[in-house]
Amino acid sequence: MAKYPERRVGYWRSPYSQRLGATCYASPDGWLLDKSVELDQFFAVTGQKFKQSELVAGNVLTVNSRSYVLTEGMAAYFPMAHYFKSRICASFARLDDDEHWPPDTFEWADASFSYSPHREYLGQSAPESMRAPPPRVEGCLIDTSGRLIIVDDGHFRHLLYDTKALNLDEIKSLFSAIGKVTGSLGEIIGLADNPSCEWGSLSDELFEQLCYDVIYSHPLFNAETIRKYGKSRSRDGGRDIEVYDIPRIPGAQPRKWIFQCKLVTGAASLSATKLVDVGDMLDHYGVEGFGVMTSAPIDATLYDKLDAVCGKRKVQQMNFSVLELERELLAKPLIRQRYFQK
User: Fold this and answer.
1) pLDDT tens digits for 229-243?
2) Fewest 10 Å CB contacts: which of 38, 248, 296, 327?
3) Phi-psi region of 175 (alpha: psi -120 to 50; beta: other; left: phi over 0)
4) What's the first-to-final CA gap in the chain, in angstroms?
5) Average pLDDT over residues 75-98
6) Sheet of 256-262, strand order
7) Interior CA angle at 191 toward 336 and 200, to 5°?
8) Which residues, 6+ apart, have CB-to-CB distance to 160 below 8 Å?
9) Angle, nearest 10°, between helix axes 322-331 and 168-188?
10) Are the CB atoms for 286 and 260 separated by under 8 Å?
11) How far apart are CA 334 and CA 274, in angstroms?
12) Which residues pair with 270 in a beta bridge?
């Protein structure tokens, strides 16, 4: 370990170093290449089918303690822990570099997706001749398949393989998390949003489309199974939206859900008289989940009716009154802007 310190973080000097003309290191999770090594040469020598021309620029984002790479048309996980190991290996690789001492590749000038306000303050307060250069922003590239991420820190290229492109449901969860962050930042800068929406500006058809978007983006449901039946007020048998959920237990069967959409304008609430034949509909379509989506408060009589009908059939409920809908739209500003332009 004293002779080969890079092995402390799981890296070994690769025998390909001689053929590549520069020292490179390998681990089960990635490679560390000297900046002088051409990527296409490296891929050819190591027998990998990647090409530099198929790499696209991305931005690294950390939300809720998970890191991602975002690029046009794709999002992927960013293996930050493995990147840090690669950076440590890079610092060991520079131990013999007399021109760079101490070999600290985590300094502010090489900011690894970080920022130091203290260093910036010192840089601004120092005489111009003594100011440190601004931090360099690492270049991040990702293969279009989402299987390889490359970070260029100015001295080395870090090739990271422990990643994958997010599927639709994972993207929906990230979208929801970013919406919450956006709301929190809005409150901090004094833009606490009023969740009230101008429901009277929507037609019945637009309201059903809005409900469709809310269910489509909801992490509980499989977006590939969602169906919206016909135009509003059509003979759809009480089914406005049908969708299957995503089982949380491996091997479990997905459950069919049906949602009814009711646009109500003015001060009226949605009462039990507005929903008829709910039990017959649940029996006919064999559903295991049911919900009402409305732009009004839900009357106690309707809640009692749904509890009785669904409880008897062991059908799970997920209802969206105006309160739940407006909270959903507050966390999903893109959907809200689509229908209310704000």
Assistant:
1) 876 555 555 679 999
2) 248
3) alpha
4) 59
5) 85
6) 227-228, 241-244, 256-262, 289-294, 316-317
7) 35
8) 29, 30, 78, 79, 82, 83, 86, 148, 149, 150, 151
9) 90
10) no
11) 31
12) 298
Cα dihedral 210, 213, 214, 219 in deg (nearest 10): 180
DSSP-assigned letter for residue 274: G
Beta-strand pair 241-244/24-27: unpaired
Cα dist. 43→25, 40, 127, 154 in Å? 14, 5, 46, 20
Amino acid at 104: D
DSSP for 32-82, written as a single string: EEETTS-HHHHHHHHT----GGGEEE-EEEEETTEEEEEETTEEEE--HHH
Q: Please report, to the nearest 10 degrees, the dihedral formed by the alpha carbons of residues 275, 278, 284, 286 taken in order.
A: 120
Residue 212 structure tokens: 């469709």
The partner residues of 157 in beta bridges, in order of sequence, read 33, 152
The CATH 3.40.1350.10 domain(s) of the chain lie at 199-340
Stretch 20-36: mean pLDDT:
92
Cα–Cα dist 261/321, whole Å: 10
The domain 199-340 having CATH identifier 3.40.50.11260: the answer here is no
Dihedral (CA of 97, 101, 104, 108) sign: negative
Q: Which two tokens stand for residue 227?
A: 């169906």
CA–CA distance, 333 with 56 (Å, rounded to integer): 27
Neighbouring CB atoms inside 10 A of 20's CB total 18
Give buried/exposed letters for 135-169 (b at 16+ CB in 10 A, else e).
beebebbbbeebebbbbbbeebbbbbbbbebbeeb
Over residues 51-60, the pLDDT tens digits come to: 999 999 999 9
Mean pLDDT within 80-99: 81
